[in-house]
């Protein structure tokens, strides 16, 4: 393997552990340093021997970071800050949106709708704590399970340069993050948004909730747990930045947990509002469809879609991880 390839792989492993704003500058600095060391060591010098002198990429990255004790280290801080901004923005917008919706749905309850804005500071604080805790746990787990250096370091141990198809784009994760946070906030602060809206002849609004609100105190925690598991999957993809065995393992575990929680919610507890289905059956003009307009039929349909969607996602992740993410 030529020296240029070793050098590129080494620089990649160093700079990926540094804050984003420093990566280009330090990559150029490292390239220049290696070239100077090659010139200084004479004709017998090779890129491999120079890299051996520089030491493992992780140790060299620590010197550039001037490592101290951090709650969230510089290696993770850019991604942490990026996720935190998205989550805080989504939480803030969701609380304000739910207050506005509740006001327009029932202007007589304007005071109660305004009171929901008081939840904004506590919601933002909870989001800040949850994101910070998630990154702290992920970082500690990464350090704990990272392979130890049992033998002298050698440049041949460097992972290969990333293929373009192995990279997980940030735009792929932002959609998942935004959906998860907004959906959780709406279910928490304004579940009545998910309703059938009917206007009488006198233009009086009647709402028929889609969900069984009598059991909402049981349903909501299970849905939030499923969404938080999905959030972990998205954050792992963001932090890792590429398809690999770790991403595949986390995706498999989170998908399995989400399917199990979906089964519990849809099949083991009352989830749908019976009045909603009574109205649908009353308005249905196709007799052959009547047997399918039931709570059980809709639960089976949604569960099937969830299983299909998770299987498709897991299959895609497995394909990209095994084909493009091999070390």
Description:
Strands 1-2 form a two-stranded antiparallel ribbon. It has helices spanning 3-15, 20-40, 47-54, 57-65, 74-105, 110-115, 119-145, 170-189, 216-240, 245-268, 274-283, 295-324, and strands spanning 195-199, 205-209. It is mostly helical. It is elongated. The model has no long low-confidence stretch (mean pLDDT 81). Keywords: Membrane, Transmembrane, Transmembrane helix. The chain crosses the membrane at residues 82-105, 117-138, 174-198, 218-236, 248-272, 297-319.
Strand content: under 5%
Q: Main beta sheet, described?
A: 2 strands, antiparallel
**Spans with pLDDT under 50 lasting ≥5 residues?**
none
> Ends: how far apart?
16 Å
Run of helices and strands: HHHHHHHHEEHHHH
**What is the 3D shape?**
elongated
* Helix content estimate: 55-70%
How large is the radius of gyration? 26 Å
Structural class from helices and strands? Answer: mainly alpha
Total DSSP helices? 12
Query: What number of structural domains do the residues give?
Result: 2
**Mean pLDDT, as a whole number?**
81
Number of strands: 2
Q: What's the arrangement of strands in the largest beta sheet?
A: 1-2
Pfam family, one: HAAS
Keywords: Membrane, Transmembrane, Transmembrane helix
């Amino acid at each position: 393997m030529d020296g240029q390839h070793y050098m590129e792989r080494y620089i990649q492993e160093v700079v990926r552990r540094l804050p984003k704003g420093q990566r280009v500058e330090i990559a150029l600095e490292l390239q220049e340093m290696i070239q100077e060391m090659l010139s200084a060591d004479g004709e017998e010098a090779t890129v491999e021997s120079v890299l051996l002198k520089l030491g493992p990429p992780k140790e060299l990255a620590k010197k550039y970071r001037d490592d101290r004790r951090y709650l969230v280290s510089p290696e993770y801080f850019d991604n942490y800050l990026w996720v935190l901004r998205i989550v805080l923005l989504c939480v803030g917008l969701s609380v304000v949106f739910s207050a506005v919706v509740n006001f327009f749905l029932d202007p007589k309850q304007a005071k109660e709708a305004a009171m929901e804005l008081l939840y904004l500071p506590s919601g933002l604080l909870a989001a800040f704590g949850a994101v910070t805790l998630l990154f702290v746990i992920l970082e500690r787990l990464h350090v704990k399970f990272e392979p130890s250096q049992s033998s002298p370091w050698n440049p041949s141990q460097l992972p290969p340069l990333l293929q373009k198809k192995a990279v997980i784009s940030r735009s792929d994760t932002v959609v998942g993050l935004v959906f998860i946070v907004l959906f959780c906030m709406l279910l928490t602060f304004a579940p009545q948004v998910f309703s059938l809206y009917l206007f009488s002849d006198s233009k009086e609004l009647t709402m028929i909730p889609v969900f069984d609100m009598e059991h909402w105190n049981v349903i909501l925690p299970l849905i939030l747990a499923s969404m938080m598991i999905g959030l972990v999957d998205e954050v792992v993809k963001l932090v890792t930045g590429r398809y690999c065995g770790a991403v595949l393992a986390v995706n498999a575990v989170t998908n399995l947990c989400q399917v199990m929680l979906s089964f519990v919610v849809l099949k083991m507890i009352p989830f749908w509002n019976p009045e909603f289905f009574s109205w649908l059956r009353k308005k249905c003009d196709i007799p052959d469809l009547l047997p399918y307009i039931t709570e059980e039929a809709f639960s089976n349909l949604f569960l099937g879609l969830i299983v299909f969607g998770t299987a498709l996602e897991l299959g895609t992740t497995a394909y990209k991880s095994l084909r493009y993410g091999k070390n």
